[in-house]
Amino acid sequence: MTTIKPHTRAHIRLSNQTEVISFIQDLCKQEDSFAIENSTGNHRVNAKSVIGVMYTMMDFPEELYLVNDTNDGFIPSFVDAYRIP
After folding, report:
1. Which are the contacts of 60, defined by CB distance < 8 A and separation ≥ 6?
2. Does residue 68 register a pLDDT over 90?
3. How far apart are alpha carbons 1 and 65 in whole angstroms?
4. Per-residue DSSP letters for the chain?
5. Short-list 67, 77, 11, CA closest to 34
6. Cα-flanking dihedrals φ and ψ of residue 35, to 5°?
7. 0.85 exceeded by pTM
8. Which of the listed CATH numbers 3.40.50, 3.30.70, 3.30.1340, 3.30.1890 matches domain 9-82?
9. Rounded CA gap, 52 and 55, in Å?
């Protein structure tokens, strides 16, 4: 059984490859380490990896959550454009 750490995360939607590239380019400007996980947190990928993010879009497209692994609670403001209300 996987133990899930409590943490702040942002529910996001990435619809196509162009959005993924733009999202990752903006995220790579941040020094912190980020992950994208599914709703239960048991599948995670590096949020700065094109292959990882593309995989999540196919595997769990409605369950993308951005997590800051370095500084819990800090979500860059550009992410607001990708948030699901």
Report:
1. 38, 39, 43
2. yes
3. 20
4. -PPPPP--EEEE---SHHHHHHHHHHHTTSSS-EEEE-TTSSSEEETT-HHHHHHHHHHSTT-EEEEESSSTT---GGGGGGB--
5. 67
6. -130, 155
7. yes
8. 3.30.1340
9. 5
